[in-house]
Amino acid sequence: MAAIEFHGTTILGIVRDGKAVIGGDGQVTFGQNTVMKHTATKVRRLYHNKVLAGFAGSVADALTLFELFEGKLEESHGNLQRAAVALSRQWRTDRMLGKLEALLLVADTEHLFILSGTGEVIEPDDYIAAIGSGGSYALAAARAFSSIEPPMPLEDLVRRSLDIAADICIYTNHHLTIETLN
Questions:
Q1: Residue 9 annotated in active site
Q2: Residues at the annotated binding site for Na(+)?
Q3: Is residue 141 domain-resident?
Q4: What is the pTM of this model?
Q5: Catalytic, out of 9, 10, 109, 177
Q6: Domain tally for the chain?
C-alpha cells in the first residue's frame, strides 16, 4: 500500500523598493481528495521580525527547517544570504535532513531566495518567486500584474496573484496569510 501524501500549497514572494511581501494559502490536503485543514499558517516572521519565510511541502519537515533556518540567521547575525547558503549546505549534506520534503521561500527587504534540499539557493532576477502546487499560476499572475502601470501595492499584487492560483489549483484555497517587511 502506497503512503498517502499531504499536498499543498502556494507561497508567493516579492521584493521591490526596500519592501518584501510573502503570502500563502491555508489549505492542507490529505491524499488526492480530502481537505484536512483550511486555515494553516505557512508564512511567518523570523529573526526579530526582519525576515519572512514561507513553506510548501510537509508541515513537520517545514517546521524543522524553519527552526534550523532561524538558527542559521542567528549565527550569521541576520545575514539572509549567508544563512540561506548555510542551511542549504547542511540540508544537502546531512543524511537525516536530506529526507525532508519541503521548499522554503525566504526574504528580507533586499533579497528573495528559494531554498531546496538539493542544495539550491535561487535568487530570481525579477525578485518574484513562488513555490508549491499553485506556484506557477501565482508566479505568472504576479509577473503580469507587475507590468501594469502605475504599480500595484505589493500586498494587493500578492493577494490577487494568490487568488488566481486558488481559482486554478485544487490544492490551494483563498484563506491567505500575507506578511510584509518595510
A1: yes
A2: 166, 169, 172
A3: yes
A4: 0.93
A5: 9
A6: 1
